[in-house]
Predict the 3D structure of the following.
Amino acid sequence: MQRLAVSEILQKIKNEEIFEAVAEDYSFTLKIDDYVPYVCGAVHDGHQFRKELWENCLHTEYERWFEEDPCTKEFVKTHPIVIAGCDSRFEYDLNRDPENAIYEDAWGKKLWKNPLGPRHHKQSMAKHATFYSVVHALISKLEEKFGALVVYDMHSYNWRRWEREVPVINLGTSNIDIDRFGDSVNEWSTSLSALKLPNDIEATTGINDTFQGNGYFLKFITENFQNTLVLATEFKKIYCDELRQLIFPEVVSAIEQQLQQKIKEHATAFYKTYSS
């Protein structure tokens, strides 16, 4: 993996180069093993939190971890194009628009002892803007090359706060063109419901059950690109113990191994249907 300036990353995308890089400021990673008509994204995978913010933050490291989406990059790591955030959403949230990306409070608790100063705010938002400049260049290149593509927008969610049964996988579709892409959404949901998971976990699926797909990553791509479907795919945190901060590697591995084939099959079917 190379450490590259954003200008270098943009140039490599323009030239259709194969590369794996971390941004110069270590805010995100991008791997392109091949130019294919699908992308895997994990915007909430990151856990980094700038040391200069530690003393001013009222949330503990565990509280931050609890609301992040650990292992979502791991789920899709083998696919040809993977873009993922490295920084915690508690510094700035890549799945929120620029005006709301820095939290004042988070999940009912004030985040900062003292409001962030202009310098801290500017530094975080520069990273947010940089990420989206690369997303725009990447999707532009792929739409130009293939005509249509699908983005698998991977997330996870805490299920213990729900007082009812919730699906193991939820797809959020409220901001995509269901009239046009509804069949592909249903095919993805059906495919995920066939996952074989350890520990007698049944891979139940839902659409707009726990979340509706209101994230900025999905909205940004959908609003800027007419022929790209973004599938906001949320896994219930059955792959970890939320309360003890334990990861269950056998569950993570089972999801990752099966998504190797399921994503490829779904993306191929999508391309055959929509590329023309």
User: Anything to note?
Assistant: The CA atoms of residues 95 and 216 lie 5 Å apart. The chain has a mean pLDDT of 96. DSSP finds seven helices and 13 strands in the chain.
